[in-house]
């Protein structure tokens, strides 16, 4: 299978006026115009994997594989805005806005978000693969736990220390 950025795609969230969102989406398209990340993915690995695979147009590019049942847990991306495209499979994104709402991200669905975005991405199906771009570079992630209907900060991970 060859991975390409969809020329017609469904953006799951409306595009806002933050130019970093566009930088991230453009970086995904540029990366996929010259690379096939699916060519090197091990779809049999039993745990979720993530790897920074490059930097394009001012954005970090990360490849994530999602075995069935894997998830990120509630987190944000520090000050980075971003975008990701589901290259294979289907993912469910739960977004926190005071309550959790869910969206299904089918193959070729593109999700854009700003630096205030808190979410949990889950694979409820068969193995999935997604490509992510973050602008500026992903330097920190805040982790949260849902406790009595509220998200509470559990940790702040720094690039180079935890990933």
**SSE ordering:** HEEEEEEEEEE
- In CATH, what is the class? Mainly Beta
Total domains, how many?
A: 1
CATH superfamily: Jelly Rolls
Largest sheet: 5 strands, antiparallel
Please count the beta strands (DSSP E, at least 2 residues each): 10
Helix-strand makeup class: mainly beta
Gross morphology: globular
The radius of gyration over CA amounts to: 15 Å
Strand content: 35-45%
Mean pLDDT: 88
How many DSSP helices? 1
Question: Strand order, biggest sheet?
Answer: 1-2-8-3-6
Q: Level of helix content?
A: under 10%
Describe this structure in words.
The protein has 163 residues and is mainly beta. The chain has one domain (19-155): Sandwich (Jelly Rolls), CATH 2.60.120. The protein contains 1 helix and 10 strands, in the order H-E-E-E-E-E-E-E-E-E-E. It has a 5-stranded antiparallel sheet with strand order 1-2-8-3-6. The longest helix has 16 residues, at 19-34. The protein starts with 18 loop residues before the first helix and ends in a 5-residue tail after the last strand. The relative contact order is 0.25. The mean pLDDT is 88. Fe cation binds at residues 75, 77, 119.
Summarize this, please?
The protein has 163 residues and is mainly β. The chain has one helix spanning 19-34, and strands spanning 49-56, 59-66, 81-88, 91-96, 100-105, 110-113, 119-122, 128-135, 140-147, 150-158.
């Amino acid at each position: 299978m060859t991975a390409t950025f969809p020329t017609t795609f469904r953006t799951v969230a409306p595009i806002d006026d933050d130019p970093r969102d566009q930088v991230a989406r453009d970086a995904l398209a540029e990366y996929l115009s010259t690379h096939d990340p699916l060519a090197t993915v091990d779809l049999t690995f039993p745990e979720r994997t993530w790897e920074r695979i490059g930097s394009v147009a001012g954005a970090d590019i990360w490849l994530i594989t999602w075995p069935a049942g894997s998830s990120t847990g509630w987190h944000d991306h520090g000050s980075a805005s971003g975008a990701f495209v589901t290259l294979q499979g289907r993912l469910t994104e739960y977004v926190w806005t005071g309550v959790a709402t869910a969206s299904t991200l089918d193959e070729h669905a593109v999700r854009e978000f700003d630096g205030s975005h808190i979410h949990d991405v889950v694979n409820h199906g068969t193995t999935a693969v997604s490509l992510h771009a973050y602008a500026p570079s992903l330097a920190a992630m805040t982790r949260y736990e849902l406790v009595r209907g509220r998200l509470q900060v559990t940790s702040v991970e720094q690039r180079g220390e935890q990933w």
